[in-house]
Design brief:
Helix content is 81%, strand content 0%. It is mainly alpha-helical. Helix 1 runs antiparallel to helix 2 and helix 2 packs antiparallel against helix 3. The longest helix is centred in the last third of the chain and has 34 residues. It is elongated, with a radius of gyration of 19 Å.
Amino acid sequence: MTQVAVEAVGWAGSLLLIVSLVQTRIVRLRWINLFACGLLLAYNLWLPSWPMVAMNAALVVINVVNLVRLRRAGRSVAAESASTAAPTSPV
């Protein structure tokens, strides 16, 4: 991989990280941040910058765990609202 391509990966990861932090929806923030951290993880592995590798690897795990939790919470809320919905009257 050329130096220009490696730098492009680093810049793309940094830009995505900034974009993720201005999101108002938490699931969108987590997904964008996950991809940003993945790019930055690859970039820092190539350098190598081990403290940044460790931080971005931890952030990838944190984002995945939180996305799983949000998905499970969404399923339980959907199941709860479906079970407590008022029966519809045939009209």
